[in-house]
Amino acid sequence: MKMKKVTKTQLAILFFSIAYTLISAFLYLGRKNYEFLIYIGVLIFFIALISFLHLKYRFTTGTLLGISIWGLMHMLGGLVYINGTRLYGVMLLPFLRYDQFVHFYCYIFVTLIAYQILRSYSKKDNLIVSILLIFIGMGIGSLNEIIEFIAVLILPETGVGGYYNTMWDIVANTLGAVFAVVYINIKNYWTSQ
């Protein structure tokens, strides 16, 4: 693995991700928000994992930027309050909370990362690969819900929400994965013409 595979822009995205993670950690620590301190640990793990995988699979700069923006959106979701409501609880549309939008957005990029890994093993973009990508996005989304559940089990109070919230998160994760697969297939169709 040679460093020349990493561009200056990609390094800037990495440093941006590390910077907002550290700033968020200090703010959450100051507020004694232990729920989001757990998420800081998870975010650090994913920054390291994606950085490592990038060296092997060479994710696009857009994908790296998109997943970095997700991390920032996640951190802001617990830090920012609007009219006394934590950003994660704010309704963006009558049927869509900020929380579900962040899940939808995240799983677009999780699925794009899975695609960029799978494409190195499979040269065909067929129905089976598309279905696998959706299942990968859904599976990682389930891992996210397990992490939220662990926070509920070990902390006296969290903003995770109940069963209804979990199901909407799973729906948003799935829709994000489906959206990414549609995007991938349309892009691949037009570039092959």
Globular, elongated, flat, extended or rod-shaped: what is the shape? globular
In what range is the share of β-strand residues?
under 5%
Fraction in helix: over 70%
Overall SS class? mainly alpha
Q: What distance lies between the first and last C-alpha atoms, to the nearest angstrom? A: 33 Å
Describe the biggest sheet?
A: 2 strands, antiparallel
Low-confidence stretches: none
The number of helical elements comes to 6
Task: Using the CA coordinates, give the radius of gyration.
Answer: 17 Å
Walk me through what this model shows.
The chain has helices at 8-31, 34-57, 61-79, 98-118, 127-154, 163-192, and strands at residues 81-82, 85-86, 91-93, 96-97. The chain has a two-stranded antiparallel ribbon. It has one domain (3-192). The protein is mainly alpha-helical and 193 residues long. Helix 1 (8-31) packs antiparallel against helix 2, helix 3 (61-79) runs antiparallel to helix 4 (98-118) and helix 5 packs antiparallel against helix 6 (163-192).
